[in-house]
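General statements about sequence and structure are easier to judge against a single worked case. For one protein, we set the task of working out the structure tokens from the amino acid sequence alone. The sequence in question and its structure tokens are set out directly beneath this paragraph.
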Amino acid sequence: MFITDPVPTGTTAAGAAPRYLVRPAEHADRSVVRRLVAEHPSWVDRRSRPGDPADNPILRHLGVLDEGWRPMTWVLLEGPNVRCCALLVQNLTRDRTWLPDPQCGMSLWIDDLYADLEGPDADAYGPLLTSWFTDYAARYEQVGWVCAWTSDAGLADDLGVRHRMEVLRSAPHSASLLRRRPERLPHLDQVVVAQLPQGVLSRRRS
């Protein structure tokens, strides 16, 4: 059980404005998100995607809402700089054999994530956004898990440690499921402020 989450160096002092902002990605973010996609590997395979970055799912879903009016793409900003972007979708939880498990309900899936590896806290951006998704899921979404997957077992172990996620193997598919229970992380409020659309705010949990 992880008690704390990684906090970037130089975090603002207590009482100061949060250093980071999380908000849904917008069409105006296209150029900087495209640069992140083109210059840095995806977190699920450590390789840059071949072909035109414009074909990347994150770019194709900028500003898009899903059927439940949830933003599908998110960015983490430090001042004017986009430090991380991710594609987030809601889908059925999957079991150890990598099959949908209706009995386990729905999960938020981090389908992809890119971080600015040249930023001053490059190692913290992805884990920080994952932690924020964990808190977001606990506050606003009726889901059982925050999940991701990768076919690279070594990468899964690394992501599991750095992103505070449990790793489950799926031998028939040579895949690894990463998951984390939604959890309120009030200490993040000192580090990250969020701009959430009304459709999300209306789902606030008591």
Q: What stands out?
A: The CA atoms of residues 109 and 147 lie 5 Å apart. The longest helix spans residues 122-140.
